[in-house]
Amino acid sequence: xxxxxxxxxxxxxxxxxxxxxxxxxxxxxxxxxxxxxxxxxxxxxxxxxxxxxxxxxxxxxxxxxxxxxxxxxxxxxxxxxxxxxxxxxxxxxxxxxxxxxxxxxxxxxxxxxxxxxxxxxxxxx
Length: 125
Description:
Helix content: over 70%
Low-confidence stretches: none
Largest sheet: none
Number of domains: 1
Order of helices and strands: HHHHH
Radius of gyration: 16 Å
Mean pLDDT: 93
Shape: globular
């Protein structure tokens, strides 16, 4: 049953990513992949909040819910592979410095968002 829930929530996360990215692309013109950046930062924050809540208040969330929301929803929503491809695309089309800045910014801001989510999840749950 858990596997089915992870698959369903993973699909919901992927569809949510597609819709959000399309909307961001429609509004923000240019070569910088703003949608993927926002998606990965937001997903890192949400997964951090779930992790913080589960770690500090284990009874708040069942292991099945943690797996379903974390692995399924957040895993389907975030996208390391797209961020990697967009890093290479920026590297090749706009220069090595732009590609490198995007890669570093994505990793750093996503990590900071995860830490913030963990802190918030530990306090609120």
